[in-house]
Amino acid sequence: MESKMGTMEAIERLRNMPEIEYAEPNWIYQHTAVSNDPYFESGQLWGMSAGGNLNGSRAAEAWAANKTGSNTVYIGIIDEGYMYMHEDLAANAGVNPGEVAGNGMDDDGNGLIDDVYGWDFEGNNNTVFDGVGDDHGTHVAGSIGAVGGNDKGVVGVVWNVKMLNAKFLGSRGGTTANAIKSVDYFTDLKTRHGLNLVATNNSWGGGGYSQGLKDAIDRAGAADILFIAAAGNSGTNNDASASYPSGYTSENIIAVASITSTGGLSSFSQYGATTVDLGAPGSAIWSTVPATSGKGKNATIISSYASYNGTSMATPHVAGAAALYASLNPGADALQIKNAIMSSTTPTASLAGKTVTGGRLNVSGF
Ligand SMILES: [Ca+2]
Ligand SMILES: [Ca+2]
Ligand SMILES: [Ca+2]
Fold first, then answer.
1. Residue 116 CA: which ligand is closest?
2. Catalytic one among 79, 188, 218, 224?
């Protein structure tokens, strides 16, 4: 029987029939994702919009609509090492699918032996995590993809993602040559293994223009990899005094300024009406870090949490947004993901005339 009646109208008619005992809709229940992670529940994770803070990324609204990312999406972290065995990161640690762990061979033929979690270009070895000095990289990883809903620690913009690591920053910083190798490492991984790597997170900057680095970023762009970069922490105008790598003209770059929990431009944040794309949470950001327990030969590395400030902290919120969008739109290319992030920003007074979009990150509509 064909009926043009709506469901509720049909139910009402059935209810009025004496032989019908009861009629009601067969509701379809959606499992909604609500974070039980302590730093979210306490309201400290304002960047995820804990406590309903609308200056945050509004990731919590995406989670409530069951949008929590996918473990088929990869993000490359170009930074220090990150603590991939951290209690709140391990489930989202990516591995190079072409490499067999610990067999002493370069299985995938990229010239690097046992590059399982990534590669340490600074130390030229496969131990990407080298201890408590790798706190910055670990903090970045947590804002992208700390595990959500595990009743532990913090939560990233995406609960599910795979993060790989190219370490080029050491205690003395990093070199342009190793930055280029790091960018090309991920481009090659995607090209070689068909890895669904949608973006690299680049919470670093400094130094002058490098044609070699720009060319590497363009090679990443040709492979549909976004290069999401920090605007810098000197409080200056990048339109007047260029800052790299966020300031290269490559289309696949998203340059990120930092905002506070009240929506202001963070005092340290660099900006630029034509060179910085949007703002994202970067002040008082809680995330994952390694810590030391015990002393001397009894010292061990443990999972911990800390609050940091910087455009370095804003950038991974946007990288997490790229992973979230890619998980929901598997066919989207790099520029479509960038456009989705840019066009969904919320207009923000402190960013008007200081960024390309004049707005802050908002993933609630993804
Ligand atoms: Ca290899
Ligand atoms: Ca190492
Ligand atoms: Ca967690």
1. 1
2. 79
- Catalytic site residue 246? no
Q: Which ligand is nearest to the CA of 125?
A: 2
How many whole angstroms from 210 Cα to the centroid of ligand 3?
Answer: 38
User: How would you write the pLDDT of the chain (366 residues) with one tens digit per residue?
Assistant: 444 556 666 666 666 776 766 667 666 555 678 999 999 999 999 999 999 999 999 999 999 999 999 999 999 999 999 999 999 999 999 999 999 999 999 999 999 999 999 999 999 999 999 999 999 999 999 999 999 999 999 999 999 999 999 999 987 889 999 999 999 999 999 999 999 999 999 999 998 999 999 999 999 999 999 999 999 999 999 999 999 999 999 999 999 999 999 999 999 999 999 999 999 999 999 999 999 999 988 899 999 999 999 999 999 999 999 999 999 999 999 999 999 999 999 999 999 999 999 999 999 999
Decide if 79 is catalytic.
Answer: yes
**Which domains, and CATH codes, for the chain?**
36-360 (3.40.50.200)
| 277 in catalytic set | no
Cβ atoms of 143 and 179 within 8 Å: the answer is no
